[in-house]
Give the backbone structure.
Amino acid sequence: MDLKRGSSSRSAYHLRPALKEGEERRTLSVLVDNESGVLARVIGLFSGRGYNIESLTVAETDHTGHRSRITVVTTGTPMVLEQIKAQLDRMVPVHRVRDLTSEGPSVERELALVKVANTGDHRVESLRVKDAFRASVVDASLESFVFEVTGSPEKIDAFVDLMRPLGLVDVSRTGVAAISRGPDGM
Amino acid sequence: MPSNPKSSTMTGAEIVIKSLIDQGVEVVFGYPGGAVLPIYDELFKQNKIEHVLVRHEQGAAHAAEGYARSTGKPGVVLVTSGPGATNAVTGLQDALMDSIPLICLTGQVPTFMIGNDAFQEADTIGITRPCTKHNWLVKDTDDLAETMHQAFYVATSGRPGPVLIDIPKDVQFASGTYIGPRNIKPSAYQPKLKGDTAAIQAAVELMEGAKRPLFYTGGGVINSGPHASQLLRDLVEATGFPITSTLMGLGSYPASGDKWLGMLGMHGSYEANWAMHDCDVMICVGARFDDRITGRLDAFAPKSKKIHIDIDPSSINKNVRADVPIVGDVGHVLEDMTRIFRSRGAKTNKAGVAKWWEKIDEWRAVKCFDYEGSDTLIKPQFAVERLAEAMKKHGDYYVTTEVGQHQMWAAQYIPFDSPNRWMTSGGLGTMGYGVPAAVGVQIAHRDSLVVDVAGEASFMMTMQEMSTAVQYKLPIKIFILNNERLGMVRQWQQLLHGERYSSSYSEALPDFVKMAEAFGCKGIKCEKPDTLDDAIAEMIAYDGPVIFDCLVEKHENCFPMIPSGKAHNEMLLGSRAGAGDISQAIESDGAVLV
Ligand SMILES: Cc1ncc(C[n+]2csc(CCOP(=O)(O)OP(=O)(O)O)c2C)c(N)n1
Ligand SMILES: [Mg+2]
């Protein structure tokens, strides 16, 4: 596995790069018509205008109304972040753009499938770490496990980091899904 | 006018034509090919819509832009798949940058062949996604009418722009249900037209106290319609504030008006740029703080509070922070602004503004557009001045341009007293825009004088459209300021690249008079200042297309100029700056800018 090592912590593994000075990280929720090409349109906006994407997830969340919800984690200066929201908001298939980071409290979750190949002490230790992270075993063979772990991106980073010396083989992450706290919908 | 909301069954090709008719379309600019033959067949069978056969699909898009800009109606383009679509791309991006409503219909290979590298297949949707406001691939004839009407809605509402519908050939042949424009679903795209009253009130308060106010207006005023231009004029008169405009906004306030400071920006007037630099309250109306306008951002209007009216929220706070942002349609906002201004007693800081005008008069006295005349050579500025004089005498004129020095001289020396009279490629700076745009303008205004102020190099990019002009009896006048140079490139090389004129010489130029004759146009050549007026009169009097080859001074530079990376108050004046001054004025960090 060739993952970039973050700088800030020794115990937890950080995929998220350190923020540049003056930049902030935001989680945006974008409600779109699930028409063909809508994801290409959103991604094209980010690449064409030089905005960052740290994480992006998308799936249809309203099958009758054909609406999808895109969750995108991005970084930039406050001015650029305002631009990103305005640029998204004016796209024809976009119904709503919400800044979950700045518009009140929200929860973020990510799911990862983590494969380790190990035997002996490493095998026992990886099961202990699994318990500590409330992960579960979704596949097992005599010399491997696939763990499912859910949590904040930081928790998943930490889990992956701990599995590294225990025989980490593969990681598959969903990217962040996020939703605001409290009773209000988008 | 939209009619017949009843639904009925027809072929996809019939739905296309029916939708266009119901949307009030009178003209389509296009070029046929295999993937659009069913639509061409339907065009043949009707006579409500005129089809203008261009000579290159780029020409179709620019002609539609010229048509749209001069009428305020959307322009319609029809081209085939593959090369037809890719040829139209430059025009789409041009329309996107300048907010011109276009509906581009492209043929596509049949749905069952998409993705197989079929003959004349291109991923038109993928290619045009970033250069349209929105685009659609229609895979089912039943969706076609809805998509057609949505396309008109999206192109013309909010900040206008180009849209594209890709229609596979089997969808054109198959039958589907037609619905009228009034029966479409509401779109997720609902731009905000009314400005926030509290923000408008805050803007009026700033305006009331302003000592050095300035209106800075742009293409958004023109896009909002003639009503918005009228409201702007009224507000300028009511406040007594000076006004400048971007290249795209010329004509929204009359050039003959006494509050007019001329265009601002890189080649704008001395008084407009200095006023911009020194103003204390800037009222930006439908402009977007483009880099040609602002110059060095950190030195841009440093003492000013900025009010920014724009229908596109993404234009606000993009380059320059607005103190009072107002999202809304220019016409709506100006109406509310004028009402609030009047209801509060139409107060302004009269003494402060009077002193501001004294300052402005000092800048005006510099006469920044003066140039050294000549008895032997035609100075390009002189040529444009004489052309402007003749056009004024004639009345009822429209001007298009190509891109280069001639474009800037046209903007500087030709006065526009009403909107929709000036079509130029501002955002994209597309050489070759002017000839097809003139075709589009003349189609819409058959009896008016339509002149393309051209450079010889730009003209050669789309000159094949002269053949279109001849076919449709469009008496467009191509007024070439022939300096035998890619003049603007040469100017930058002189000023920034040590006078190394790398490929900026127009080598092997054709004989434009003979070329005109070969096309079936009139050719006129003029080399001497004293014969110019007569030659221009001859051009205007001729009832047909003319190519006017005006041989001008070859090394004239376009001034005034704000060197790249410099502030407004560091602008250079022609008669006072030599090349040395300018190359020194541009520092290395400015040289990377375009
Ligand atoms: C399609 C395109 N290619 C290249 C350029 C770069 N460019 C800007 S001005 C210019 C020279 C234009 O020459 P001409 O049309 O003769 O006008 P002049 O500046 O001499 O008046 C060039 C090459 C452009 N704007 N558009
Ligand atoms: Mg030239």
About this structure: Residues 134 and 149 of chain A are 7 Å apart (CA to CA).
